[in-house]
Write a structure and sequence with these properties.
256 residues; two-stranded antiparallel ribbon; globular; eight-stranded mixed β-sheet; homotetramer; Rossmann fold; alpha/beta; 35% helix; 7 helices
Chain lengths: 256, 256, 256, 256
């Protein structure tokens, strides 16, 4: 397996779907929101993406079976006036720079096949300090989107985040723009120390408003606790096995 | 040499062989068991695999000749009711993430050519503590295999190993599953500090039971001591030569 | 996106243009000078270059829109006796060794298409000490150029810089020479601790003399201050987000 | 430039030439001997090899001109009963694992084109202690060569070097063997702390005896001193520029 593999699970027909990306990243905010949406909306898995740019590993489930690390795309057929959605979630992002470019290209190819005209990239913005009242800051790839997003409660700060936006979220905006697809990055302001359900709720609130889809929110808190536990265990195990590891720790550290 | 090179040494005809993977890994358990099986069963070398993903080096034998680092596949024709086996062993695993994916793809291509329908991936599970009574924990790529393996003495722990299974062992389960091949990972619980013959014996006991092949076990202890010596020397030399090394230490550290 | 992408923005017709490279590098000297020239000469952007060898990120502008990191080529039609120019600037250089070779190949392909016969590669030479009277040291890819550059105020030191010239500047001389294109590296001697407008002025003075183009210099100081601020912010943010980053810090550190 | 580039400088016709490799490596022993032989034998440069696997840099000569880092092959037509030689020297070895495999493949392709049937790979064997009476230890890729080399004064130690032989020297033996070419590695035992002319003389003595070519030796000492100076300067500069470097230090450190 030298190439990224796109495995179609199910055929669906969607109308102008909006792509929501919630891969692992800063403070686990994007992953938390998107994983939750997949479940709350009962979205259907339609595509699995495997890639040599992901860490070379499988995860072990509670029942003893394994799961090859991957990214997945789920489809949601909007009810009544709701728009159709594609939800991109996964265990990891690319472990290499080049892989981010390749995989984002793959995501955008799929988006174009389904006629996607708008992308929301969800993430966190780590401040290093605990946040009392979580807010959502934004970045967009077309100026007109700033005003629209402000209407939904998104804040824009001059030249922030100062370090730019790294990984799939950033490239979906950058490379998406080169293909003429509107893209908006929603970053929940978070300490970065914990999996932060309050910040995730705020991101979901903004997103729901823009999508005009109501998503139940109470399960978010529990999901955050569970995710925190899994990440803690993952890190602990990686530390324990570090001296014997086959591969470079840097390439393998958990992102989510 | 830009591509992985598969060098056929010998033609054999096998019936539904089972593939046993014992490449270097945590606590050297898998390598110890598989190297031992190759010798105890007098298996025939049929394939050598060379790859730019292995460290760029040769090993030096006692007689002054060298050995290009590689992976090897041995064949064993089962006697009477025994199944046929393919045994995958080697000096190193891939030194890169992408290489793990590519090489596992190569292993699975070969497995499919020989009609392999089941894979055992052998490894260790390092706890960081010395283990009194070694056990074998398992992970599988099809739920029905859990019960079968429990019958052979394998333990399954909820969501363990928490850090997932990394390298060829993990990918043989993950990518093997995508090709519809059953695969089982047997991990001997070990401290990880030494080459652990007791744990290796336990893995071999479980494996023998499942394969219904008797393998002599006494030589395991001596082989463990010898392997410990070689690894010690290798690490010592690498440390001594580190300041002058041509290549990145991380990429070259011994795995086995 | 697996390959470097050359995006033509505008068609221009130039006569024997001289290529000026000012990508990020030691002390930000080259970037400072070239960015300034683009603005002061009101040069036209004709080409954007995107590559998987750049960090996988977008920068965020003051107005909330993003910019996919890239390299850019601007064209300047010389007035009267002035030569035509191509100016190569950008946010980053390649994040990988191989990428430097590939991208320099791309730059030289473009240079050849426009009939470039001479290249100036601008950079800094960090001494680790604050410099009272900035000077410009040179290196060339054809011996006859040494004398010519001395006439413009360039100093040549025996075997200096002793560590060679790394990145695009070096390779433009080396690989450019293999294609028969004259190339000169102008290195402003600088402490390396700050974005150094005095050193940049000296490089610009030498370059202006050789090109026989007058470039206004006063804005350089202000531009240096602004660049210093942006870099400071970038570094601060990268540090703050480091534990949660998706990608390897080494690959992402700002060069400019 | 995405691929390794072989640039033919001169056509020569040789009879069964022996290939001598002396690229940078442990203690600079191989490079010292081979560089010296090129000069002492007045060999002709016939091939230059450029590669994206070398560090992305140029070196600066005393006269202000640059040299793109590369490997070079020189030819020597043997006088009377002397054999013809190909001498492989260079500024660096590959900076990546994969590059070692690719470049060694390139070297062997060239060797086969010239009908090479025997290779000497020259290197050092660092002990970390100053060596009173330098010796030369060997490794070979065909058992019969052990006895022959002992006749020339080469020592063979059981299983030594314990860490194997890394880089081009190792792979020339390993991959050369796969192509049926005899190859011998001569490693001068050295502290590894300095560029060691005494050890180099010993390697040259052994090699001269085997080749039956007399090579003048006195210039070796002076060459060692000069090389020591250049390396010191290179390291100093790299340290000074480290915080501003475009590329990863690990990938760029001088090998020679």
């Amino acid at each position: 397996m030298k190439e990224t593999l796109i495995r179609k699970i199910k055929d669906v027909s969607l109308t102008d779907p909006i792509l929501i990306e919630g891969l692992p990243g800063v403070g686990h905010v994007g992953k938390l929101v998107a994983d939750h949406m997949v479940e709350a909306l009962k979205a259907d898995k339609i595509i699995e993406i495997y890639s040599p740019h992901f860490p070379p590993k499988v995860l072990v489930r509670n029942n003893g079976t394994i799961k090859q690390v991957r990214n997945e795309i789920y489809a949601y057929k909007g009810k009544e006036n709701e728009p159709d959605l594609l939800l991109l979630i996964g265990d990891y992002q690319s472990a290499t720079n080049e892989g981010h470019y390749e995989l984002t290209g793959v995501f955008l190819d799929i988006a174009e096949q389904y006629g996607v005209k708008r992308i929301f990239a969800l993430g966190g913005y780590g401040t290093g300090q605990f946040v009392d009242k979580p807010t959502v800051i934004g970045a967009v790839n077309r100026l007109e989107l700033v005003e629209e997003m402000k209407q939904c409660g998104v804040t824009f700060h001059e030249n922030e985040p100062g370090g730019g936006i790294i990984g799939a979220s950033g490239l979906l905006l950058g490379l998406g723009g080169l293909r003429g697809i509107d893209a908006i990055c929603l970053m929940g302001v978070t300490s970065g120390y914990i999996v932060d359900p309050k910040t995730a709720q705020e991101v979901l609130r903004v997103l729901s408003k823009s999508l005009m889809i109501d998503v139940e929110m109470q399960a978010l808190e529990e999901r955050a606790k569970e995710m925190e536990k899994i990440i803690g265990k993952l890190q602990e195990m990686e530390k324990a096995q570090a001296p014997y590891e086959v591969t470079n720790d840097d390439d393998l550290r958990y992102i989510g």
